[in-house]
Amino acid sequence: xxxxxxxxxxxxxxxxxxxxxxxxxxxxxxxxxxxxxxxxxxxxxxxxxxxxxxxxxxxxxxxxxxxxxxxxxxxxxxxxxxxxxxxxxxxxxxxxxxxxxxxxxxxxxxxxxxxxxxxxxxxxxxxxxxxxxxxxxxxxxxxxxxxxxxxxxxxxxxxxxxxxxxxxxxxxxxxxxxxxxxxxxxxxxxxxxxxxxxxxxxxxxxxxxxxxxxxxxxxxxxxxxxxxxxxxxxxxxxxxxxxxxxxxxxxxxxxxxxxxxxxxxxxxxxxxxxxxxxxxxxxxxxxxxxxxxxxxxxxxxxxxxxxxxxxxxxxxxxxxxxxxxxxxxxxxxxxxxxxxxxxxxxxxxxxxxxxxxxxxxxxxxxxxxxxxxxxxx
Length: 377
What we know:
By secondary structure, the chain is an alpha+beta fold.
């Protein structure tokens, strides 16, 4: 195949795409795999009805998929984790329409990963141009959680960059959980041991289920926990039972469900996706309250799993400064934004410059509070 694509198509469905060709572009990232997007689309979680209309930009060479860019036409700003509600409100107050907008992202997943799925520079440039051309029919284009190098490509194309922060755990070749504890400061090490002991003393036992070990009754329980977490925060859950069941069937080798039980009955659960290199903490919920249950189910069980499997990184998801005391360190994230209205674009650019300075200061402050002995990373 040559360097230049022979055809560009915008798809509102992946039904006609060869999964193996898509996954070859995805590079092994579980949130970029064909199966993940199909589960979102097939179960109605990310579709036109839910305000996520797929407009995937694809490149084809002699009938073969050679480039792609996940893109959605959106009628709201839910499920993105890069908040632009203030921008939408400003548009509305000035009598302008902010929606629909275009978003390149993995729905409901604040996970860094490639958005430009192509290797050749000419093809990458073609995907960027196509996304911007589509965006000119809307108010704006937003590229969420690209890697830093890709963020630079979007900036070169005229988009404004925005900084964010998450908290990630790094595996420094630990053989056991106690090896990880040994590099923490005394007070942090003592606190984690106390938290784990309290959960154990409450009669809680854990199972880490992978792939086919996750049975239908486990998914039903997890869905109830997941929905309960959203209700507790007075929010509507994005994902349904059908999605989780399809995800577990189609990405079984990448799916980990941590199940907390008391007297043989399920009490809490946490869902993670993983590869040989990274584990991604996603959702959790509990059917009852036990002190420190959240920390054990979502963090310490994930750390033990990562150590057992030699997984290098745990990405703990959005927000959560409390993760620092448990060995998760601040990591910068990126997004890129283009607004059609020039005056609003100027205002947003000034805001982003001020915000970036604040984020940099925040990361520095967090790093000064490192939980590791002697400031060791």
